From TrEMBL:
It comes from the Eukaryota. It catalyses: xylitol + NAD(+) = D-xylulose + NADH + H(+). It is an enzyme of class 1 (oxidoreductase). This is D-xylulose reductase. It comes from Penicillium salamii. Binds 1 or 2 Zn(2+) ions per subunit. Pfam families: ADH_N (PF08240), ADH_zinc_N (PF00107). Keywords: Carbohydrate metabolism, Metal-binding, NAD, Oxidoreductase, Xylose metabolism, Zinc.
Amino acid sequence: MYPAPNDSNDLITSNTLQVHFWLHGGVKTHVSEENPIVMGHEASGIVHAVGPAVSNLKTGDEIAIEPGFACRICSNCKSGHYNLCPHMKFAANPPHTHGTLSKFFKVPADCCFKIANTLGGNSSALRIGLDEAVLIEPMAVAVHSVRQVGVKPGDRVIVFGAGTVGLLCAAVAREFGASVVVSVDLSDQKLCFAQEWMARDRFLFSTAIPAPMHAEDNAAGLRNWLQSVSPDEDPGMSGFDVAIEATGAESCIQMAIYSLRIGGSFVQTGLGNRNVNFPISTVSENEITIKGCYRYGHGDFKLALKLAMSGKVELKPLITNVFPFEEVTKAWDTTKSGEGIKTLIRGVGF
C-alpha cells in the first residue's frame, strides 16, 4: 500500500538509493525516543504514481529528489530564499517530517528532476543513473556554497574538507572558473583520490595535510605555497581569494580565515559545534566577507544536475560502497569510520 497524493501536484516515488546522517540525529531539531523518525534526505527514485495536475513526469520516470518542501508564501520564499523558509518540511527533520529511507515517499512534482534527457534533447548530454542521482543533493549544496561566496574566473580557492561536500565544492569552484583550487584534509587517501578526480588541463589543483601546529602557522604555509606558484602577486596581498570551509572543525575554520588575502571571502558550509573560537579581529582588520550556507536555493539543484549530466563533474567515482537496506547499520558504521568517499543504501524492496 502506498500513500495517495493529497495535492494534485504531488507524486509518489519508490526510492532506490539513499544516503543518511545519523550520528547527531538532526541539525536544528533532533530525534528522540519519544519522536522517532525515518531517516534519509539524499535520494533518487522511480515515479510510482502522479497527481492529476502533474504533466512533466509520468510513472516509471527516474528522478533525483530535492527533499525540502517550503511553504511558498512567506517573505523568504517569495524573495527566492526558500531554503530559509521557517515552515520548511525537510526530509528526516524531527519531529514531524519523515525521511526518504522508505519504500514510498511523497514529494511535490517541482521537487523532482528527471535524470534522463534533462538538457533539452542535447545529444551531448550524458545519462546518469540512480546511483549518481543521489549525489545531486550534496552537489546542490556545493553549488549554493560557491554561489554564496561568489567564486569567479581566476579566483584562487581553498577548500577545507575532502569529504563528499568538500570535493564537490572544489569541483564546482573549478567549473565556475577558479584558476587554483587547494583541498585540505587529514586523510591522505581522500586527498590522493582528489588529485586524480580533480585533474584538468590548464587548471592548478593541489592538496595539503595540516601539520600539528597552530592554525595561523598552517595558514602561513598555505599562503607561502600560493605565492610560490603566483610569483607576480604582490607579497602584501598573498593569500587565497576564497575559502570554503566544509568540515565544521574549529581549527579548519580558523585556518580558512588566516589563509585568505586582505579582502577575501569565506563561506561556512560544513556543520560542527554550534559555537567555536573565531578570529574576529582578523576578519575585521582584513575586511573579510563572511557568508553562511544552508542547504540550497533557487536554481542550485537544477545547475547541479546540469553539471552532472554534461559530464563536467563526474559523480560515479565518488561512490565507494552500496549496501542493501538490510545492512543499513553496516553502511552507517562504514561511513563513520571514514572509509571511502560516499556510501549509499539501497532502498526497501530493491
